[in-house]
Specification:
By secondary structure, the protein is an alpha/beta fold. It has helices at 9-15, 60-64, 72-84, 102-107, 114-124, 142-150, 167-172, 179-192, 211-224, 251-274; strands at 34-36, 42-46, 48-49, 68-69, 89-93, 129-132, 154-159, 197-204, 228-233, 280-288, 297-301, 312-315, 325-333, 338-344. It starts with 8 loop residues before the first helix and ends with a strand.
């Protein structure tokens, strides 16, 4: 079996009774292109499969093979069908969203890339919100920045995983960026998109991480002040380069560092949320609340992604329905959540 055929390995093993019929797997490891959520007005659309990168901690290329972009026409048709079904928000995902189309371009130089896909989705669907995840900093081009800045339906929200803040660790991780690239992209994005919400993910306790490395990451995060951070302790994946590295960090040290990092981010998040008090923002209602006398519904602004970010708790929202897009005034803030009242439905 070749590398590009590995995506069929698990189904074949299950067919032979060597694996159970179903196992809980993460969103990015599911083979389906369209991934529904518990809120029917939000969906995920996986625009490619596999990955060409060789990050030391990741087993995706082993499990899913090399990067393979789906045809634009298929993606537009699927997104349009989701819109007809009432989906208001589509989250575009793959292992590196900025890499869309590069596999096809190797064989066909005029082949479309991510900006072309985004323009086609805007032209071919009525979906109000498109949200971008897994955008490698090194792949964010001036064309992409300009497109996000000028198209209201592409949300001013970017999930840009950096994985670490120490150049030494980024090199060990085999990541394509260093601090200078990360700083440059953040500056470009925030200058072009003033309302931008930036989310990132980082790994704590990668093999070989020292106190100095961790301190460098804290310093960079404190300097950039991402609105959102997903932080995780390193988890060994069999078959990866990192699994064979020396200097694995003890679990208790990883957990201590993770706690310290999240304490820093909690303060940043609260301060960022405080700045929104008094603002009027568009929000998408996710669900009604019938067991809390103070709240009527839970919604999300353009700066809040489903499941991974905080939410906006709504008061004075009698009559709103899940899936409706409303204007809210932010009246209070918490560490990660906002409190708002409906001003226009």
């Amino acid at each position: 079996m070749g590398l590009t055929e590995l995506q069929g390995l698990v189904p074949e093993l299950r067919k032979r009774g060597l694996l159970p019929d179903s196992q809980p797997i993460s969103t990015m490891e599911q083979p389906l292109r369209i991934l529904s959520t518990e809120t029917p007005h939000t969906s995920y659309l996986k625009i490619s499969e596999g990955c060409d990168h060789t990050c030391a901690f990741c087993a995706i290329p082993l499990m899913r093979g090399l990067h393979r972009s789906q045809p634009i026409a298929d993606l537009v048709r699927e997104a349009a069908e989701l819109g007809i079904q009432g989906v208001k928000e589509i989250n575009l995902i793959l292992q590196d969203t900025t890499w869309y189309g590069h596999d096809r371009r190797r064989l066909d130089p005029p082949a479309p890339l991510l900006p072309d896909l985004l323009r086609a989705l805007l032209a071919g669907t009525d979906v109000p919100w498109f949200r971008l995840f897994y955008m490698y900093p090194s792949g964010i081009t001036p064309e992409l920045v300009e497109l996000i800045a000028n198209e209201a339906r592409i949300l001013p929200y970017l999930d840009m995983p950096i994985q670490h803040g120490s150049d030494r660790m980024l090199q060990l991780m085999r990541r394509p960026e260093r601090q200078v690239t990360i700083r440059e992209r953040v500056e470009q994005l925030r200058e072009a998109i003033p309302e931008l919400t930036l989310r990132t993910t980082v790994i704590v306790g990668f093999p070989g991480e020292t106190d100095d490395d961790f301190g460098e990451m804290l310093d960079l995060l404190g300097e950039i002040r991402f609105e959102r951070i997903g932080a995780f302790t390193y988890s060994l994946e069999e078959g990866t380069r990192a699994a064979e590295m020396e200097g694995h960090v003890p679990v208790e040290v990883m957990n201590e560092r993770l706690g310290e990092l999240m304490d820093v981010q909690r303060e940043i998040s609260f301060e960022k949320n405080e700045e929104l008090v008094g603002r009027h923002l568009m929000a998408l209602v996710d669900r009604l609340v019938d067991d809390d006398g103070d709240l009527d519904a839970i919604a999300r602004t353009t700066g809040q992604a489903l499941d991974v970010d905080g939410a906006t708790n709504l008061c004075d929202a009698v009559g709103v329905q899940p899936g409706s897009m409303i204007e809210v005034e932010i009246v209070d803030s918490l560490d990660y959540d906002l409190i708002g009242k409906v001003t226009q439905s």
